[in-house]
Protein 1
Amino acid sequence: MSTKRVKNYVNGEWIDPENSGYIDVENPSTGEVLAQTPLSTPAAVNRAIDAAAAAFETWRHVPVARRVQPLYDLARLLRDNEERIARTLTEEMGKSLPDARAEMKRVFENCEVACGMPVLQQGDKLVGSSYDIDGEVLKLPLGVFTMIAPFNFPAMVPFWFLPYAIATGNTFIIKASKQVPLTMQVITEYIDQVGLPPGVFGLVNGDRVVADTFMAHPKVKGVSLVGSTPVCRQVAEKCAQANKRFQAMGGAKNHLVAMPDAKIDDVIRNMVTSCYGCAGQRCMASSAIVAVGDATYETICRRFVEESRKVITANPLDPAVAGESMVMGPVISAKAKAFILDMIETGINEGATLALDGRGLAVPGCEKGHFIGPTVFTDVKPGMQIHQTEIFGPVVVILKADTLDEAIRIINDHQYGNGASIYTQNGYYARKFKLEAEAGMIGVNIGIPAPVAYLPFGGMKASQFADIKAQGKAIIEFYTEDKIVTERYWPEEG
Amino acid sequence: MSTKRVKNYVNGEWIDPENSGYIDVENPSTGEVLAQTPLSTPAAVNRAIDAAAAAFETWRHVPVARRVQPLYDLARLLRDNEERIARTLTEEMGKSLPDARAEMKRVFENCEVACGMPVLQQGDKLVGSSYDIDGEVLKLPLGVFTMIAPFNFPAMVPFWFLPYAIATGNTFIIKASKQVPLTMQVITEYIDQVGLPPGVFGLVNGDRVVADTFMAHPKVKGVSLVGSTPVCRQVAEKCAQANKRFQAMGGAKNHLVAMPDAKIDDVIRNMVTSCYGCAGQRCMASSAIVAVGDATYETICRRFVEESRKVITANPLDPAVAGESMVMGPVISAKAKAFILDMIETGINEGATLALDGRGLAVPGCEKGHFIGPTVFTDVKPGMQIHQTEIFGPVVVILKADTLDEAIRIINDHQYGNGASIYTQNGYYARKFKLEAEAGMIGVNIGIPAPVAYLPFGGMKASQFADIKAQGKAIIEFYTEDKIVTERYWPEEG
Amino acid sequence: MSTKRVKNYVNGEWIDPENSGYIDVENPSTGEVLAQTPLSTPAAVNRAIDAAAAAFETWRHVPVARRVQPLYDLARLLRDNEERIARTLTEEMGKSLPDARAEMKRVFENCEVACGMPVLQQGDKLVGSSYDIDGEVLKLPLGVFTMIAPFNFPAMVPFWFLPYAIATGNTFIIKASKQVPLTMQVITEYIDQVGLPPGVFGLVNGDRVVADTFMAHPKVKGVSLVGSTPVCRQVAEKCAQANKRFQAMGGAKNHLVAMPDAKIDDVIRNMVTSCYGCAGQRCMASSAIVAVGDATYETICRRFVEESRKVITANPLDPAVAGESMVMGPVISAKAKAFILDMIETGINEGATLALDGRGLAVPGCEKGHFIGPTVFTDVKPGMQIHQTEIFGPVVVILKADTLDEAIRIINDHQYGNGASIYTQNGYYARKFKLEAEAGMIGVNIGIPAPVAYLPFGGMKASQFADIKAQGKAIIEFYTEDKIVTERYWPEEG
Amino acid sequence: MSTKRVKNYVNGEWIDPENSGYIDVENPSTGEVLAQTPLSTPAAVNRAIDAAAAAFETWRHVPVARRVQPLYDLARLLRDNEERIARTLTEEMGKSLPDARAEMKRVFENCEVACGMPVLQQGDKLVGSSYDIDGEVLKLPLGVFTMIAPFNFPAMVPFWFLPYAIATGNTFIIKASKQVPLTMQVITEYIDQVGLPPGVFGLVNGDRVVADTFMAHPKVKGVSLVGSTPVCRQVAEKCAQANKRFQAMGGAKNHLVAMPDAKIDDVIRNMVTSCYGCAGQRCMASSAIVAVGDATYETICRRFVEESRKVITANPLDPAVAGESMVMGPVISAKAKAFILDMIETGINEGATLALDGRGLAVPGCEKGHFIGPTVFTDVKPGMQIHQTEIFGPVVVILKADTLDEAIRIINDHQYGNGASIYTQNGYYARKFKLEAEAGMIGVNIGIPAPVAYLPFGGMKASQFADIKAQGKAIIEFYTEDKIVTERYWPEEG
């Protein structure tokens, strides 16, 4: 049979992993099978780890200024081929082309930050820690790092880690999502061209066997994961037990708080983009709106539903929607769709008002696609499951609070704490929200407060199992070990 | 019965924990019972945690410049009362008075570094993360942190954490060592005087039930531990599972590498101090000497044994030894002594040469003390148990290597990687050692490469389960959460 | 005659400078002669510089952690004797006791920031600047630094520099204000007690001959000055010519912009404190109010005059005013008073409305004091001399602007750019003001935006001749030279 | 006449400056006239400054992440066209092609460091500078900066400044060397292609009238210069007087200290490269060797002269020398040659031994070139003019010292303090030298200790008039003003 087979990239070569089974990769808009992903065996994964471990022994000694040169080239190659990668991403994942391009922007940005490593990785020098004695802090790489990529950002999330790991002198292996492996296949084509020594970067495909093998191998020094909270917990526990570093980013339920003084027209537009981008399948998507005060609540409910109706649900590669401003594609799979429909049912049963129903939406020519239209619940209370659960689809719940304090309490009582935003022009409210809302990333008049790559990225509470956030200069701490030197020489003549 | 009872310090008050049993605290030089330690129950510990959690809600909002004022006062009080604390420490732990004073020096230093928090805790501000949008990184406290102290540094180790935790706006609870709880009792007397709001600092006494309670309580955000590697592993695993931060410092076997060009007279004196200080019971004690080359090996073996014989083993509070330069006290307990004697037996059986035998040493008037004299094995091979095991007593093994590469290999093949030192005047060897020896703390012509508090402290491999080291500016990352803000305001008139 | 004579402090000893003349120090509230200041000759000043240069050769090699110990002690001594110093300050300078205490607070703060030098002075270490080559940046002291103190903050301004200069390993000489030398006499009593080696700190008294001698001596590495803009310019020029570092802080005219949405009651109170503290004689005093919009202007004019009337002008040491909330003392001298009266005359002649007239005010029992009451001009236009000139007294001008843009233009067209504040609750206006108003220090709802010592202090435009600001971690760059090391060793055997 | 005319680049356009005279640009190897440089009038220069000032008003508000994009492109374009630029540089300046390529490497590096500005330009955020008050440090651009380039590094030196000035949001004008203007002409062709808004970068050609015009214009905020010490002094003085920032790098006489333990073969090779690269015309060239001890002195004198004889003096573009390892070209001009010959005469008259005489050397086919061969003086004493003067040609003086202390004293007594290097394997000597030798850039076993761009660049004493060094993250302080914000909002309801 002629379906394209996804490959691993090990020790600088493209290979089919031996003895592996395969599963289908589907276009979620059409149901078409795009390719097949191998389920790599532990032996196949170990081979990649061993290659990375061997490569580390020379890579660590390459001066940092040389280590970043391939990243400059990679950033350029990816930029030059942005459209090809974005289309691949849209085809296998279902997000709109503008969303795919926005994702690529963060990819470039992260490469660029890591290119600054010759300055950023410098350690400290204390002259005279005591008489005739000096102290130094050397920030040195550790060895092989790995990451386990999610389906929703198959390009961006790996680049929260990859460029930093490599620039600091470690070697790095990615496990792509088995549902959306093709984007990383294309990206790896470009990585292959930038002259990294074999083994410095590796790509393996498969299911959780791959992750388990990462965690079992003594040469793996750390694991980064973006996934569900239960998986985060397992990864954290196993890594801790094995004395490996870990960063595990989990679930989210991001709140948007609208204050009475907010500029309502701007707010509504901003909310819609925030809630329905990637069909709600992003860890920074907003899915809970909290309106402060009765009047604000009334207005938001009405205007948000109105604006939600204007979102076009379609196959994002359909040329007919190319010029539209707000296009929403399918969710990732039939299973995901079933879960979302189930949650909508739950919301109805819990007594929330289904103000906009995205079920039963038909996209002509895409009968096998996994589409759900914008869905809005009003009259939602904090106790309800549709508020407590990460639905990961285009389903928005609207709650009311009497005061900002109450709005913050709703956020702080929630298990997750990834992002949270406030809409207000008032500096007092903004400061209070920044300090008190328990979320790792805070927006002020920004619906998706995902930081640019020049700053760290990460959540709080059940949204993150990690001491150190991704991206920015923060992650350098994750990829380096502080080695502390105390040095003196006994006096010589002369 | 009238034996003094150790108390807990909870919510700003000294209390006897309810319903607890008690165990004896012994002077290891004399066997005398000094006091009794309560074994706090989970209920007693939870009360301390709840007080700390309540205190956090106001303490976090106190400006950082005010939060450090009590630490200035504490540093001064401890300095003014150094001798009292040092004598308490020596009495219950057995280390010499100069060693106890050296320990106190690090206590002051750590307070002083934490006093710099108004500068050090500043976050970042990115003007123009995009058009009209700014980014911020706020470094905010998390809540209640705890630490579990070891017997060997009952004053210093808590201060790797305490001042930083409090200065950053967290609240903090220490579990003192049940074997040496008195030093922290005295220190807490001074903490009690510096005006911290109730609950900001707490002290609980007991056994591993306390540690388990820390890890079980949802309000505890992090745990720091200095203990054995197996306990580290458990703490790491439990904390990860519960999404708590952890720093767990474990076992060590620190190597001293002597190069042929080293200044031998200085080296020998330095080695002796390094090996027998605190009777070898410190995580930074050296216990394995690697001599490079036959001639170096011969000289070191001869000279080191000679110099070891000069060490005076005695009750460190005996006025007769007050003026002596190198006094060594007992090990901590009969159990510890039995283990060490067993390891000496093992070394003999493994075929190492017992070049100096510290067994059977009698300290007049201290018949119940747990003394072992300086003990040296030569002809030791890397495979032997006396080289692989952390003996934690005054037992030194001497190995030979043909080259620096071989010496580094011996270090790198060892499970532990806390400290490692090289003796050489040669810059090439020093640099190679600094970069290649796998230990978190490296010394060059420094036998105990424990960094000053202005730099971080921490090991590698099985010596440390943690991403972030203790002390210095590094630990601020442990005690703060980066909250990332993306902020804009929509344009107004005018 | 028995009038107290101010002394110099040179090489650790109090001395009367040889061959100097003397001038009187006056209590500006009463005209009483408090003491006499010597006018040190160049020879006397050179002796102090030579002592400082000699002291540098050992002080620079004292480990930084030891260099800061005297600063800890000094901070404590000054705190313990705050009231004595504050009263001396009030007596010779005329500011209220609360103002004097507020000044002392900054003194302590600056000591505390400098105490953090063991962490803050660390340089950088780049492992692998090329193959087998490392780079280092060492932050080393330079030698003798000097500073020339103003009359208005005789305690605080010296401490923007002193603790940092000394902590970084330089030696330091202060020229006190000849009008208010007594505060530094008292402070130096305490400096004398903290164990600095002789010559590390020196104090000389006199007039501009002292400053000229500083600039002429080849061993002086830098000069800091707070004074008038013309003097700043001369100091900058001479220092540049002699390749010395300099920081020269000059004149100011600080604007307060009130937006229509500001909380007017809070604003008015805040403005009054800002304008009349130290009788307007501080470089961060506000002396120009810009109200945005007609209604705001009307309200501010009325309310500000009302509130200004409540300020009590009095001898600040008069027990009768001890409990009053807003007491204003005299200006510094008869000459200063004459200049201010002249400016008031000018304002009247320029056509501004004298809404409150502080002239002719009598303070019973203080007939020889230099008092002027709160004085307010309204209907002021940007072109007027009373707006363009730094009056340095309790004279406030109120202007009107139609928009925030116009208010900012008024600020930016002014020659000075020290501080500027906006009153608004609106985040958009606040951000615009922060970015666009050309002043080194910006306040948002803060009338005196003088930064705490944990941040730098300094102005823009004619208010500052310097690349590097005072205070905080910024000033470390001023007191250290980056020495850049490129280091390698050729390979050795083994 | 058809000789190529050098152009200015103003407001995004290539122009011939109006009313200017012209002078010849000569190939120093052949005397051939390559082009003519215009001598821009003040009016022409002011036009460039006004364009830059206008461009600043929009450029400053472009987000920093966008400001660096043209620098990425520029780095790539320059890399892709390295050979063309290097040949232009060699043709007009005379240095060898390998030296020209090494210069270009630093150009790329500096672009790359500046590309890190989105992280490096971040300011500080202090939450809670007091109750409910926050502090911020914003690092903002100032306006128009200028630089005055030297003839010897017409590509590298401008890039110590250009990328940083632009990345931080300032606008920037270069005055190229009138002797070697062509390299910057070519580089500006590429700058022209990268999409900078008109006026952000400008290039003007001419003589000191240009520099004077920079210093006279009120919109110019700073001047950087690499030139002679007397010119530095004038620039510093004028800038200080006008309250402009300045960095002025001046003369040098860099010492190489050889210790007895140094690896002599490596040392000699390293010294030769260091002394004769660019025919000795670089501010980091070594021109004084200090041998410690009689034996070292004897060996160095003999071996260095031997090795110096092997240097091939030739037209560096002569294909016959393309494969040679050590080729030395001419000095820059007949005038420079005359000065050098004069200094050789002086050395002879002072009594030094002319151990190798580079005078009278003929390069066939280059009779009009300004060649001098390697020239070595031995028996040189510190007092001699050939030791005190910067000769800026291939003339090396060798001195003897009895001890390292004496060698350091020779360095420290010299007026200049740019670079200084020690050859030793001994860590004690290296540390002592690093701390005590008064030079801004220190080498250990590195003859030319010019730091990579990831670290700062700058000298001490008469070699630098500046507080802040060039390159690396240090220079960001030069190109930004710290604006300090103190911010609060009064409480609102809710």
Note: The CA atoms of residues 145 and 172 of chain B lie 5 Å apart.
Protein 2
Amino acid sequence: MRAQVLKSYDESMSSNQWITAENIAEPKLDKSTDVIVRIGAAGVCRTDLHIIEGVWKRFMDPDGTRLLPMVLGHENAGWIEEVGSDVQGLKKGDPVIVHPKISDGLCLACRRGEDMHGEGPFPGVDCNGGYAELLKTTVRNIVKLPRTLEPRDVAAHADAGLTAYRVVKKATRTLLPGQFCVVIGVGGLGHIGLQCLKSMCASEIIAIDRSKVGLDLATECGADHVVKADGTEVAQVLELTDGKGAEAVIDFVGERGTTVTGLNMTRAHGTYFVVGYGDDINISSAELVLTERSIVGNLVGTWAELTELMSLADKGRVKLITKEYALNDANQALRDLYAGNVKGRAILVP
Amino acid sequence: MRAQVLKSYDESMSSNQWITAENIAEPKLDKSTDVIVRIGAAGVCRTDLHIIEGVWKRFMDPDGTRLLPMVLGHENAGWIEEVGSDVQGLKKGDPVIVHPKISDGLCLACRRGEDMHGEGPFPGVDCNGGYAELLKTTVRNIVKLPRTLEPRDVAAHADAGLTAYRVVKKATRTLLPGQFCVVIGVGGLGHIGLQCLKSMCASEIIAIDRSKVGLDLATECGADHVVKADGTEVAQVLELTDGKGAEAVIDFVGERGTTVTGLNMTRAHGTYFVVGYGDDINISSAELVLTERSIVGNLVGTWAELTELMSLADKGRVKLITKEYALNDANQALRDLYAGNVKGRAILVP
Amino acid sequence: MRAQVLKSYDESMSSNQWITAENIAEPKLDKSTDVIVRIGAAGVCRTDLHIIEGVWKRFMDPDGTRLLPMVLGHENAGWIEEVGSDVQGLKKGDPVIVHPKISDGLCLACRRGEDMHGEGPFPGVDCNGGYAELLKTTVRNIVKLPRTLEPRDVAAHADAGLTAYRVVKKATRTLLPGQFCVVIGVGGLGHIGLQCLKSMCASEIIAIDRSKVGLDLATECGADHVVKADGTEVAQVLELTDGKGAEAVIDFVGERGTTVTGLNMTRAHGTYFVVGYGDDINISSAELVLTERSIVGNLVGTWAELTELMSLADKGRVKLITKEYALNDANQALRDLYAGNVKGRAILVP
Amino acid sequence: MRAQVLKSYDESMSSNQWITAENIAEPKLDKSTDVIVRIGAAGVCRTDLHIIEGVWKRFMDPDGTRLLPMVLGHENAGWIEEVGSDVQGLKKGDPVIVHPKISDGLCLACRRGEDMHGEGPFPGVDCNGGYAELLKTTVRNIVKLPRTLEPRDVAAHADAGLTAYRVVKKATRTLLPGQFCVVIGVGGLGHIGLQCLKSMCASEIIAIDRSKVGLDLATECGADHVVKADGTEVAQVLELTDGKGAEAVIDFVGERGTTVTGLNMTRAHGTYFVVGYGDDINISSAELVLTERSIVGNLVGTWAELTELMSLADKGRVKLITKEYALNDANQALRDLYAGNVKGRAILVP
């Protein structure tokens, strides 16, 4: 089958052809709970860029011999192609979205519902993913789509959407009317996060982005205020919030200074949620203690959360802005993302 | 000043003139934290009917000599008229809404933020209320209105709205997308509850009412499904919820059988919230245990919750449907409420 | 193998021989995730009596043809005997405790960690259980025991302990120092609940029982106050709690009037947790609303909660008081339980 | 009256006489809610050292002219001396402990129960405190002591105890049996925190300290494991926790490297609570995101929490280890604290 394969890291990000189109063997069912999915669309994620530039190599492939060559693509939706002998309720052709983490269902993390905290592979990150025609996963990763949704409409929810949804769910468990929530970065994750926020709480939403594209998208997605990240964003947020900052700040960027500005616009007793990554977080313990603020790291959501997000999508409360590329144009999609030229989320369609 | 006074209970509810127009002395400042409010509007509540028919007499006035004569009206908004010597930040003419319970601020309930659980009078229920030109309350009861809101726009929030808001806030702390919330009764409280739900969570909302007026109001207020209470309502809710019932059921009626039907449409592991009252709640312990359901009683909200609700009103997310009566027509308003002829909430305007 | 079989219901509970000793076929592995456990001990539970007298028949076997004959015993521990081909990490002879509910691991309840809320059999309640030499269950039901614990030391934790632990865990999520928790009934569940409470919160514990045996056991298990259930128990709890009642009341009995007394000793804004069952729960909606109390039904705990309870047992924080009977004396054990002559929990040892 | 006054900052901490004994005017009642307390004991806190060395000057007294001279002492207990005209239920001689923050009771923070997050003075930090014979405070700050407790037994609870209690309360809301909690630093706060942890949850407690005195105190206070902070403490905690770290780490030190080691021993999905301060907190956003950890700042507790802590003290569940000094020996107490020569908490007795 056709696939887009990462064959070497590029720490300088100087290449024009990070990944390579190849014909590789089709995946086969192995265990009785395995499932093969025919890819309908695969999302292109900043994490793919981080993998290419070796950020994850440090943790997962220190000597560079363990992972590559690897098919990228951890954000997948499509149709059931084939199922193992113990899989019930799924048949060829069913439209599905694929939870990205393969979990065993037996460890304590899984048994507490936090399946992405268990051990197990993460296709597209540490084994072959969905930049291809077929993907091997398991019955535990499959969420069937309602009739209203097509794989290409939702592929980007499998990771971007699910991560944005989870952090918003955390934040909205305590956000109240009259309080403020800041969203930093209105791109692939941020534009979903904004719509989730709008649906799930009645707090006032302030969206921050560097670009006009991002700010316009924020308005479309229901932000109550938009703030241009031009160096005055902390001052602007303080002005909107009586000089005190927001009760919740969700940082979908995590680089180019946002871990500093994000914390500086977080109110006393408030929480700074970090989702995007790249920069360090640095704050004096005295300041954190005296203001009793919290800093919360955020991962992709659980399988149950993916069903919750599909419910939002089904009702039309969260719409993905996507830009389609042919599978063969994967490098173009990655380059556009790297250059900041994608509105919403890029997806590859085989 | 003019006031509408309850002079005797009417357990049979057979009178046409439950309360009496009188001229009574104006209230005077007593403690340094007292505040006199010029009434802009006072809501007419089913609790007023319950007071008249003696439901509260049982608890608060068993021998009938303690409370009457009493000015009714526990749901008040207006303008500051006069403030005690220790009151800061309020001046004559400021538009305000009045939290109904007078709390001391020092007991453990107050110190934990649950001010309505402390000891203290409840004007209009156990001392003179707001069916009058002036009302005496305290600085702790005052919430200043934003410029967007007039007293008559919000009076009914002081009790009806605040109670509806609190129960919705409780329910939405756990309600998730893909889950269901039933609202029983789309009257004075229910139509506010629906709008709060719509603003504060992304669950699917099913509204139930006996009347076409109520069902139309439900649709206006954002219900996803409306169900006529014609004896088939449990079956209809089960059909909408895959045969399992709703994760949360909020019963704003609590009489005419809703405590039975409400519980019967609550899913295993779900919660039945009772707000309206009248009937008994009766369920076998075996059934409650085997399904692990909860039954939660709900009171009026806290002062802080009143500020949260005012924020919703300020943003236009919750609009009151009210029917205005002159203060002198208080009996007419009460009769209309008793007969089920009020859409939304009745208010008295001096 | 030897087994104790229920062959007919006895609604009058008048027989002396409710169940019958028989030789039945040994269970066989069927699915690749099945596990056969050699029983070390099986707890004897009030639910067994309720099954015999037909309480569950109503829900699960209305025409009396579906369930019997059935081996009772839903509270089991022992040693691994044989495992299916996909089971890893378990080998013959490993000491284990068995979670009572067989869950699929794939439904939304399981995926949220609430495995006992999914569909699936409950051995000893709707299919053959552990009053026998061998029991068939699945890998998802197995918790390996730490070296400090023997199967007969912990069997009664599989249901009694797990139920008591779960309700205590719920209650202690909000109980604070200075608050009160009442435990009604210091028998098989209550004596475990008391020890869990003592370990997991610093609230003041009041234990209520009808018998001196129960009250002595309560003191042994760490109750701060013991109250005899002699008709004055509500008054005694009110006296211990400043006339206000307890923030949490956990009712392990649920019959002989405790659903009334339990609610009457629950403070305003407090919660009545019902675990034992038999009586109806009956309260006026007005009273529940005016006091803002909650009534919470409680089921057996999750698999994860069974591991938490095993951790308490491992540290010696929760000790079971058990009375051993030979498997062949099952009827004697059931009769002793029915007559109130068991201190702690009865267990059957093959 | 006699008082110990800070007259100038000492950023180098090189003086031997940081504060000066003086005779100053007695405080007078001003508002009707004021209360004068005769000091029974005043705790000596690391924050006093931080004030002397100018850490707080940066935030509160940037040009050095606003605060000094000031009587230190923010951790006070004693007996009622005199009360304002609106104060009820308190009379001369009543033993009391004093909540450190003066709050207005009317702001949103106070109304939500988080009184220490409102505006208002903090005696001993920004106005005269309790290193003296008398202290002026308000009725809102007073907690009456039960008969079992003397002011000198509890003074150190007013800040050290209350801070330790609050962070432990936060942590224990989610800590479960089988999980681990690390306490870094077994001094004035840590030894209280350990006892609170032991009383309020059943998790396994690991205490870390540099000194044998601290480690012995940890064992006395109920730690399950003690670990010497000798450079191997992260490795030791990982070994005790299956290589994964602890679900909660409470850092009562916050300097000399503990913000690094503390985070490094926090498990994925776990929380690092910082209480002591001095060092910066520094972590890569990628690491925080990939492990989904949280970092939580912690302040002194609320008034309600002080009553909860007094309940623990009343039951003997939390005992203070104190070292008494005469008021005149304040400099000696401060020097001993600075040199690490105080076991538990130093208190000054007038």
Note: The first helix of chain C runs from residue 46 to 52.
